[in-house]
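dumping this here before i forget
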Amino acid sequence: MINSDEKRGLIFNIQKFSIHDGSGMRTLLFMKGCPLSCLWCSNPESQSCKIEVMDVKKNCIKCQKCYDICPKGAIAKEDFRIDRSLCDGCGACTQKCYAGAKKSVGQWYSIPEIMEKIEKDQLIYRNSEGGVTVGGGEPILQADFVSELLKACHSVNIHTAVETCGCGSWDNAKKVFDHADAIFFDLKHMDSSQHKTLTGAENRSILQNAESLAKMDKTIVFRLPLIPSFNDSKKNLEETGAFVASLSGSQSSVKIEILPYHNLGQDKYRWLSKGYSLESLRHPEAEHVEACRTILRNQGCNVI
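structure:
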């Protein structure tokens, strides 16, 4: 085992027995912190680089324990809501809230602590040709920790994959990609100004990192989160397809996958005292999704 006790990573969820984010049965690690703030993000708790407290009001039994213990006075006595301007995420209220109304989001782990959890399922990984997938949030933001974690997985012959928005310096991205067997890379919009409107950041570094990644000998799946009326125009689909097709001449195995919009994370915005601007948006119809796949295929993409 690699001795990496000094490195710690902030993780907000560990999900076992996943079959959707890489080959076989996998453990998913969700890193906390993301440089983007996509309007449709299904994990809004991933965006902040700090530990947060979710306020699940439907679970509140009005026992007042959170109000009594909060050292910052961030809990209102009238309805026990959190004043986000005062809350520092210490988690004191979550330790007293046995009803589950106050929940901490984010925990610091060392690599040995994570590997202890991962290695318990080695037989499952081996029998299903699965492994470990690191997503988030954005793994690139915690590149030193994630790269050492992926090395540790390889040291015990566990397959690794990374899910990334690609936003960050190439030095940090490469540090992570070097130790991943497969990379799932989001392409949210090809127009930089539209990308900034939808995600809070331009896409120049993202496209540059995608081009650099395609030169590596990796299994690469580009992912297009299909958001109706936002990035599903024929023009954007054609430009996305042409871009991905242009990368397929490298030694890498390059594919593209459409991820249809869903609103399964909508409640979490309210629990974090955030607004959700896409409440009226409907899921794309299956016929529309297939038509979008056809446009990508017509650009020469390997669509899965």
